[in-house]
Amino acid sequence: MTQEFNIMLLKKRSSFLNDLSTVFLVVAILGLGIFYLSMSPSEKSSTELQVLWFIEGVPNWVKQVTLYSLLILPIFFLIKLINRRSENGILKIDVNGIIITTNKRQIELTYQKMKEIEFVNRILNPSNSLDVLFKMKTDDVIRIRFPHYFIINDVFECLSNFSPDGLKISAILD
Questions:
Q1: Confidence of residue 173 (pLDDT cuts 50, 70, 90)
Q2: Of 82, 107, 137, which residue is a domain's last?
Q3: What is the distance between the alpha carbons of residues 105 and 100, in angstroms, rounded to a whole number?
Q4: 92 has which bridge partners?
Q5: How far apart are CA 62 and CA 30, in angstroms?
Q6: Rounded to an integer, what distance in angstroms lies between the CA atom of residue 39 and that of residue 65?
Q7: Is residue 22 within 8 Å of residue 12, measured between CB atoms?
Q8: Contact 19, 95 (CB under 8 A)
Q9: Is residue 7 located within the same domain as residue 19?
Q10: Spatial CA neighbour of 87 closest among 104, 73, 70, 71
Q11: What is the 3-state secondary structure (H, E, C) of the chain?
Q12: How far apart are CA 57 and CA 73, in angstroms?
């Protein structure tokens, strides 16, 4: 007996590029925070006095940091968005293993190759979705996302029934 569920297969192209863009985003936000703090003395002043404060009161290095931050922020934000993408697909669970089918490819996972299955609920995630991580014995991780919570009980029950006893299935609140 095979169970089918609609999913989104989540993919990251390059973890190095993703980590690098995260670091640059944090640096850019800190740079803009420094600019905000340097402009805080003129916060309640008129626009003309704020411009005068920016010209005379803000140090040149803060102006340079602000310029670089304003250039870095949208560039690395777009790189981070392009780096993460997803494909709609179908998850099939049966006695032999798990099959993930998308428009372009098909991934077959046997229970013997899997080390652990984690259900991850992101607390700060505003959508009603849940991520599932299939951790392989080769240290590969396949991430899928279910579009709605109401599917999760069926998936968890199906995996518990079909998977062997040695496979660890856990739920994590992150």
A1: low
A2: 82
A3: 8
A4: 4, 99
A5: 11
A6: 14
A7: no
A8: no
A9: no
A10: 104
A11: CCEEEEEEEEEECCHHHHHHHHHHHHHHHHHHHHHHHHHHHHCCCCHHHHHHHHHHHCCHHHHHHHHHHHHHHHHHHHHHHHHEEEEEEEEEECCCEEEEEECCCEEEEECCCEEEEEEEECCCCCCCCEEEEEEECCCCEEEEEECCHHHHHHHHHHHHHHCCCCCEEEEEEC
A12: 25
150 is written with which tokens? 């109401």
pLDDT digits (tens, 9 = 90+) for 75-133: 999 888 887 777 788 888 888 888 888 888 888 888 888 888 888 776 655 566 678 88
Residues 168 and 90 in one domain: yes
Domain count, the chain: 2
CA count, 13 A, side-chain hemisphere, 64: 3
* Mean per-residue pLDDT, 20-41: 92
Q: How many Cβ atoms sit within 10 Å of the Cβ of residue 48?
A: 8
